[in-house]
Amino acid sequence: MAVDQEGVMGQTNKSEERRKFPRSFMDLPIEYRITDLPRAHGGVVINGSETGLLVHSVKDMPIGTNLNISVLFPERFQLTNFDVVAEIVRKDVCWEENWHGFEYGLRFVWIKPEDAGRLKQLLKNRFRSK
């Protein structure tokens, strides 16, 4: 049994125990480019942590691909973004009710210190996933 952030007792999940940085739900739009290619693609961030993102996209890409990513999110009364370079470390086919595409686990390869600060602030304001 474990106590969550609100002091509620519950079962611990083995995947939770091994995560150094907890994941938070996001549901935010992203624009990404495969490194060194000019064409941009869109997707949605499902959840994220200080070390990576889980995203949905219709673009089929292999594991190991590096992406330049811009995540757009609201901050106070304006829109802002953070930019990262990430590597695809996991890929699954994703079938949902009205959509199908791919689910990618991304690990950050590079992030500017000021964007890392923005990301930490964004994560604090989101719900933790289990």
Kindly summarize this structure in a few lines:
This protein is mainly beta.
Strand order of the main beta sheet, please? Answer: 3-4-5-8-7-6
Shape: globular
Major sheet characteristics: 6 strands, antiparallel, barrel
Rg from Cα: 15 Å
Distance between the termini: 14 Å
The total of beta strands comes to 8
Number of spatially distinct domains:
1
CATH architecture term:
Beta Barrel
Give, in order, the helices and strands: EEHEEEEEEH
The low-confidence parts are 1-17
Kindly estimate the percentage of residues that lie in beta strands according to DSSP: over 45%
Helix content: 10-25%
Number of helices: 2
Mean pLDDT: 83
Task: Using brief descriptors, characterize the structure shown.
single chain; 130 residues; mainly beta; Thrombin, subunit H; 6-stranded antiparallel β-barrel; two-stranded antiparallel ribbon; 13% helix; disordered N terminus
Describe this structure in words.
There is one protein chain. With 130 residues, the protein is mainly beta. It has one domain: predicted glycosyltransferase like domains (Thrombin, subunit H). Helices cover 13% and strands 55% of the residues. Strand 3 and strand 4 form a beta hairpin. The longest helix has 12 residues, at 113-124. The relative contact order is 0.20. Residues 1-17 have low confidence and may be disordered.
Question: What is the topological layout?
Answer:
Elements lengths: L1 E2 L5 E2 L3 H5 L5 E11 L5 E9 L3 E6 L8 E10 L2 E19 L2 E13 L1 H12 L6
Antiparallel strand pairs: 1-2, 3-4, 3-6, 4-5, 5-8, 6-7, 7-8
